[in-house]
Design a protein that fits this description.
mainly beta
Length: 82
């Protein structure tokens, strides 16, 4: 799956991932390969990115996520590596 995390001023992450967990408005949820298409709002919190062998955490300040055809786009109001 391809993940992109963007803020208004920069691209925070781009790459292939095994899964990603995001802070949804109604609670956190995980996106795995072949996830159903979804658009959801996000709260402030941690985005946990799992690649082949490592985990990376990025703190975001709200936003939205779109998942379509194994492409994940996170548009965040702000972000920083934790």
């Amino acid at each position: 799956m391809k993940l992109e995390i963007l803020t208004p001023d920069k691209k925070v992450f781009e790459g292939e991932v095994r899964s990603v967990t995001v802070p949804g408005t109604m609670g956190s949820f995980e996106v795995l390969k072949d996830h159903a298409p979804i658009v959801s709002t996000l709260e402030d919190g941690k985005v946990i990115i799992r690649t082949g062998s490592t985990d990376e955490t990025i703190l975001i300040k709200g936003g939205v996520i779109e998942v379509l055809d194994n492409n994940i786009m996170v548009l965040a109001e702000g972000a920083q590596n934790s």
